[in-house]
Amino acid sequence: MVAADNASAAPASIYVLHGKDDYLQRMHLQQVVRRVVGEDDQHMALTQFDGPEASLADVLDELRTLPLLAERRVVIVRQADPFIKTHRAALERYLAAPSPTGVLVLLCDSWPSNTRLARRVPQVGEAIECETPPRRRLASWLVDHTARHVGKKLQPATAQKLVDLIGDDSLGKLCSEIDKLATYVGDATHITDNDVENLVGHHRQEKVFGIIDAAERRDLSQALELWQQVLATDRDAPYRAIGGLAWALRRLIDQRGHQSRGAAKRLNPAQLMEHLARLAEADHTIKTGTGTVQSVVERFIVELCTR
Hints:
Helix content: 55-70%
Number of strands: 7
Structural class: alpha/beta
């Protein structure tokens, strides 16, 4: 839990929000600002600088200027990597005697822990990591995020289902879906599998299952037609495609014993796992920029129909 979550403690003199996940940086920045200056009239107690052009003298002057109609002033330096690199020694000196009414917030990509500045920050403030969790930890991260920031309970299996449906490319999209689900369930304390299926897209799931079934029947035209329907009816389909297809294949593996769908009857677990491995390769192709989502998915469908 970051200090920004602890509203009862006094604000620190400095917060360093480091990492490349823009959503996490925005989320933690909002928490810090809310904690330091509250909800009202934030603009009266906020000053922002663009790191590459920021002047050290201007930043320090703002930190030492008494806030107007507020107890503290927040001074934010965005894209602060070059600012930190250029003024590291001066920042160390400032943190030896920081302003009692100024709170410095640095937003940066890199924050090496072996520098004197990094070792100094925990004595008067906090460094908060803003990196996207790896896929294997996304579900548990969502469970914790939902409990802490949304006030709802989410089971790990339900969180994993959401990751499979939405994909792991955007933490912001996942958290946006959690917010929608929280509104959808109203006063209920839990977000369930049924809630995810109903809100995230039951009809789209059926089409994704239909793609797999049609491909395994070697019905290429039907599989491609269903894929075009998914693209036409779901504006986020390009971001969800690989995750949705992988989720459908995993469901078929789980349903293998029930024989509830045609593809589950025809395929053995080894074949299903082979398809999942090919999807992982397709995902890598998309993320490295060597293929578009539409072309990669269509190629995967053609391979399913012809192998």
